[in-house]
Amino acid sequence: MRPKMISIVSGLLITVCSAAIFAQAPQAPPKPGPDVKKLNVFVGKWSSAGEMKPGLMGPGGKFSGIDNCETVSGGFGVLCHSTMDMGAMGKGVEVGIHGYDADKKEYVYSAVGSDGSMTLARGQVNGDTWTWTAEGKIGDKVMKQRYSIKWTSKDAYEFKFDAGPDTNSMQTVMEGKETRVTAAKPAGTKPSSE
User: Fold this and answer.
1) pTM of the predicted model as reported, rounded to 2 decimal places
2) Where are the alpha helices (DSSP H) in the chain?
3) Distance (Å, rounded) from C-alpha 145 to C-alpha 162?
């Protein structure tokens, strides 16, 4: 009887010790790394103004817009609500999110517009210049696309959008400037659409 009791007690001790090892305090949630934190430069309320070039997207003309961007998902993303006045092309809204794909070491931008357009672009940073590339429809044709920005100060950047049937035949579709008009709102604050 005694050896059976020792086996049971030994078995219980092994089970309790194993459970104690696996039941250690849960790990803290992951924190955004330096590459992810670079996205914080886009947080805040922005005003944009620029010019569309005649050609791929119509007759061209002046445009303006407002972007309200905030950090989301524990600091792993930046969500932007945008309103645009594209002159003769009309007004529209877009919701987009910036993130970082750590496996591919690329920035990712995904958006949907009120005209039904979808964007999925991948980007790189080189000094003060960010460049995203994508492929999507302009009119009824699928085009290679490149959106690049160059920071001119901590609260302003110039941008350019190029498109074409291939990367060697791209032309400038629009260019302009974005200026931060208000600083970042606390995380979780719903941006206004002013």
Assistant:
1) 0.78
2) 2-22, 34-37
3) 6
Residue 96 CA, distance from chain mean position? 7
In this predicted model, which residue has the larger pLDDT, 5 or 147? 147
Question: Do the Cβ atoms of 111 and 97 come closer than 8 Å?
Answer: yes
Q: How far is CA 182 from CA 42, 78, 119, 153, in A?
A: 11, 16, 26, 15
Tokens 């609260």 belong to 155
Please provide residue 114's backbone torsions phi and psi, each rounded to the nearest 5 degrees.
-70, -10
Paired with 55 in beta bridges are: 58
Phi/psi zone of residue 75: left (φ > 0), alpha (ψ -120 to 50 degrees), beta? left
Rounded Cα–Cα distance for residues 38 and 32 (Å)? 10
Amino acid at 123: G
* Alpha carbon 170 to its chain's center: 24
